[in-house]
Amino acid sequence: MLNTISSEQTLDAIIVGAGLSGMYQLHTLRDQLGLRVKVLEAAEGVGGTWHHNRYPGARCDSESHSYMFYFSPELVQSWEWTERYPQQPEILRYMNHVADFLKLRPDMVFNTRVASAQFDEPHNLWRVITSEGQVWQAKYLITAVGCLSSANVPAIKGLDSFQGQWVHTSAWPKEGVDLRGKRVGVVGTGSTGIQAIPVIAEQAGHLTVFQRTANYSIPARNAPLSDDFKRHVKQNANEIRALMQETPNAHCFRIKQRSALEVSDEERQAIYQAAWDKGGLQFRATFDDLLRDKEANDTAAIFIKHKIQQVVQDPEVAALLSDIDHPFAAKRPPIDSHYFETFNRDNVHLVDIRHHPIECIDANGIQTTQAHYPLDVIVFATGFDAMTGSLLRMNISGRDGLALNDAWHAGPRTYLGLQVPGFPNMFTITGPGSPSVLCNLPPQIEQHVNWITDCIAHLQTHGIKQMEADAAASDDWVQQVNDAANATLLPQVRHSWYLGANVPGKPRVFMPYAGGFARYRGICDEVAAQGYRGFHLRT
Ligand code: NA7
User: Fold this and answer.
1) Structural element, H or E, at residue 218
2) Which of 76, 221, 427, 443 is an S-S bond match for 250, by CB 3.0 to 4.6 Å?
3) How far, in Å, from the CA of 212 to the mean position of ligand 1?
4) What is the rounded CA–CA span in Å between residue 478 and residue 420?
5) Which residues contact 425 (CB under 8 A, 6 or more apart)?
6) How buried is 178 (Cβ within 10 angstroms: 0-12 exposed, 13-18 middle, 19+ buried)?
């Protein structure tokens, strides 16, 4: 097989995925280390998750000035966001801007899906085969496939028989879906459903929302950015970057170091009200024990449930929307633009599928155990086979043909979320075992890419042929990931995709590292400073 591979397809590194992580990784390996690198990307352009998630209302829940790269002062100066929370088209424009600014496109191969990646031990190479049968090989394989890229379409009986149109939010057609005047059903009320529902309600003739789990949501209070704020970002880029690196969630705000239980009721209400008025994920930052202490969490939960009951006029609908079974922020906490208000519209109907589950889909709509709902369009806002789905889909096999699917049969096992034992010279950006989905992603991507780049520079300079995570170090890390999660309320949620519990048959393992971004960064730096403790370096 080696003879059939052209010299252009023999590289130092192959990166899979042209989202933010793949783009930055290409820049550092190519432009800082001078390596021969290509990015393979299934889509026809850059953007990763933002290329595909074009559903109505799609926008970022991180504030725009925290959802960008800060590694290059020139890049920071070259861009201005227009809104507090940018919409998908603007984010995609930013990502295209990054690609052009860093002149990345010549080294990106689009419309190229990785069908398999095998480690060839005798040649110490990763051999990647695309779905078109092209073969690429390189010493290093870097997966930059995102955490939320593998859609979870529920296996509901009869979906194939539906005569209308159905679509998953993460595969929204580029040309859009004409919802005007139609009877639309949305299944799912996570962050995506909560963003999409208010916008779909404005377009559709009638909207039916199928809710399995009621959810908290905080108003985003989105607004255009003032010129003053845009100037502030450019003038304070270093401070903004430093702040994001210090905070547990890699956002641009600090968590107040106080307990929700140490202030009076009156003071607590005033604090929550101010955070509610300000809007956004900062609501979580009002107290530092909301995710650790159930009693503290209850105070926030009660405040938000009360708000829902105030906003929603029909008491039965309000009761259903505020009948939330998990602690606040123990599932990914959505933020919204008029989500609860949408249920006051005449053309919106809420269906409780917790107590009356969906039985099947037929030619004309959705049948629950209680009623039939005729529909023209079904929108699945049902989330993702998160964190491991896109990695496992790539048919990766490591040393001795060990398949990643087998290595992870009991759940993902990584060292620092960066490497998997048995898979030498393969690196994973924001993979399971790293803070990933619990934190704002761009600062983490910078940290991961910088760490991997320094590491590869070390391997190249010292003539090290192979780097591989030690099995015992990986087991210890999995334990640390579990311990960090168990110190919070996060693992208490049923159906949590943090645990893989939203995908039938998926092992239940808490996947993201919940110890905080700053702590994680410190651990990674220490491991590197100690000569890559916990990795085998083979010359
Ligand atoms: P989520 O957060 O996984 O939400 C998916 C929603 O779909 C949630 O309400 C689920 O209910 C519901 N769901 C999933 N499967 C089913 C089935 N089979 N039947 C009915 N309802 C179902 O995904 P999102 O896309 O909203 O958000 C993911 C991330 O994307 C988000 O955090 C941002 O980072 C961007 P459940 O709660 O499981 O009962």
Assistant:
1) strand 218-219
2) 443
3) 9
4) 11
5) 119, 124, 126, 139, 140, 141, 466, 467, 468
6) exposed
Q: How far is CA 303 from CA 256, 265, 298, 336, 461, in A?
A: 18, 11, 8, 16, 57
From the CA of 383, give the closest atom in ligand 1. Answer: 23
How many Å apart are CA 302 and CA 17, to the nearest integer? Answer: 42
Segment holding 322, helix H or strand E: helix 315-322
Gap from CA of 86 to ligand 1 centroid (Å): 22
CA of 535 to the centre of ligand 1 (A): 36
Alpha-carbon torsion angle 388, 393, 396, 397, nearest 10? 100
Pocket test for ligand 1, best of 191, 385, 493 (most atoms within 8 A of CB): 191
First to last CA, the chain: 25
User: What pLDDT is attached to residue 4?
Assistant: 65
Distance CA 110, CA 107 (A): 10
What residues in the chain have per-residue pLDDT under 50? 1-3
Query: Does residue 381 have its Cβ closer than 6 Å to ligand 1?
Result: yes
Residue 92 to residues 99, 133, 448, Cα–Cα distance (Å): 11, 29, 22
Phi-psi group of 383: left, alpha or beta (phi > 0 → left; psi -120 to 50 → alpha; rest → beta): left
Domains parsed from the chain with CATH numbers: 2-46+104-150+386-538 (3.50.50.60), 159-227+240-380 (no CATH)
Ligand 1 atom closest to Cα of 380? 7
Rounded Cα distance between 432 and 434, Å, is 5
Residue 291, φ and ψ in degrees, nearest 5: -100, 0
Residue nearest to atom 6 of ligand 1 (CA): 188
Please state the separation of Cα 195 from the chain's center in Å: 15
Six-digit token string for 265:
């009721």
Q: Which residue has the tokens 């139609």?
A: 182
On whether the CB atoms of residues 499 and 490 are closer than 8 A, the answer is no
Residues, the chain, total?
539
Query: Which stretches within 88-162 are classed as H helix?
Result: 88-101
pLDDT for position 2: 46
329 lines ligand 1 (CB under 6 A): no
> pTM for the complete prediction?
0.95
DSSP percent split of the chain into helix, strand, coil, nearest 5: 40, 20, 45
Tens of pLDDT along 97-136? 999 999 999 999 999 999 999 999 999 999 999 999 999 9
